[in-house]
Hints:
Order of helices and strands: HEEEEEHEEE
Radius of gyration: 19 Å
Region (Disordered): 130-153
Mean pLDDT: 86
Protein name: META domain-containing protein
CATH architecture: Beta Barrel
Largest sheet: 8 strands, antiparallel, barrel
Structural class: alpha+beta
CATH topology: Lipocalin
Signal peptide: 1-23
Strand content: 25-35%
Number of strands: 8
Keywords: Signal
Shape: globular
Amino acid sequence: MRRLVPLLVGALALAGCSGPAESPLGATRWQVVRITDDPDRATLLPDTLQGRVYLVIGRDTFTGGTGCLTFSGRAWWADDESRARLSDMTVTPSPGRCIPGEEDTAERLRSVLGSGDLAVTRPAEHELKLTRTDEPVEPWQTPRSVEFTDGAG
Length: 153
């Protein structure tokens, strides 16, 4: 028994030194497919932006881009990983010229994802949906959300 105690203490110390916990979504680069933010606007991203606008959500931070803009901020996950919050979003220009719609898309993403509680759902194997849960929505309304694909589906 005395020999087991140092081994157990050593194993626990090594476990405590392991790297940060992985994001519930892994390191997937999620491509934005649809932004639901205004009933008077189209939700599906235009063909010119499909595959260009993305988000990577880590355990504590997130990053993304639109082609000519990059954004980043802090991420928080509920213990059961069914809810998240993205905050402190900053948007900065990156090298290159913007194509029509990129700046507007970044602003729409900031509007939906930039603050507030988000329900995290996986409608299908290669899909992700982040839906605002902190805003009152009437039964006939659609809550604000962003839908993604991992590009493999």
